[in-house]
Amino acid sequence: MAEQASTINATFNETAANGTAKVPATPEGMAMAYTSLFLMAILPIFFGSFRSVKYHKEQKESGEKPETMSSKDAAMFPVIASCTLFGIYIVFQIFSKEYINLLLAVYFFFLGVLALAHIASPIVSKLIPEAFPNKEYHLIFTQGVKEKKEELMNYEFDRKDILCLAGCAVIGIWYLVKKHWIANNLFGLAFAVNGVEILSLNKVSTGCILLGGLFVYDIFWVFGTNVMVTVAKSFDAPIKLVFPQDLLEKGLAANNFAMLGLGDIVIPGIFIALLLRFDLSSSSKVKSKTYFYAGFIAYILGLGTTIFVMHFFKHAQPALLYLVPACVGIPVFVALVKGDAKAMFL
Length: 346
Fold this sequence. Notes:
Distance between the termini: 30 Å
Helix content: 55-70%
Shape: globular
Strand order of the largest sheet: 1-5-4
Strand content: 5-15%
Low-confidence stretches: 1-20
Number of domains: 1
Largest sheet: 3 strands, antiparallel
Radius of gyration: 21 Å
Order of helices and strands: HEHHHEEHHHHEHEHHHH
């Protein structure tokens, strides 16, 4: 999910569904669409960051070492993302878009159901009454025998989890059959929260390398070629959040969409989550979350700038062009003022 989300991560755009005619966007419709996208972008970062802290704590308590991205991985990521993006572009030029998107729909159906269930399960468990006949299960899957025996899966769940999974599967079928924008956004938000929670950087300097490389990647593929925009329009999968600009005129059947790629949420989000973990790991007795809020406010400013510039110039914008300087620059400036720069980059 992360690789695909980061591949098509750069554009706000308008598109129609199923080739039907679009109702021209009104100022009210555009304001509603951009405000909704704005909120859908910042909420996964906020909640995903705190879930990231909990996830890392559970990993340490269980004795597992969380997988983190190294500086070398961060430096290579834009290159890999570029190759993947161009590869997808070539595939869409050679093969039928309908067949490719059918395969993607099936793939993201399973991925989306699991991602949504991971987010919804704790909430559903609290809502189900105590009288529910619950029972726990433990699924273990191994390969090999005796000393060569290797554990591949060790998963504990209960009937509440199964009930939640069934509900998420209904949403998945809705997405698979109708490709409705609400179902798309439910999956997209689940991917974003899971991405911010689980993907991890080992230190702030690694985050700076990653964001710096994707800053160049984003500008090149949006302004230098038509590859990014072409793929974003052709790639019919829940790796972007969409909101109709003609909702007021056409209701839930609206089809004139503004969109934001998940990479514009997840990539800055994992950096902001790292800042929160840095705040909470500080030797200071007061856990002020200064750098987390500095990064979060920076993201809000950068995203607002993206929307303004996109609307003013009426052209797809590489969001990381505005998000990276804000999300890196403001927290680093705060660290310099507070004298924490050395500790931050260790």
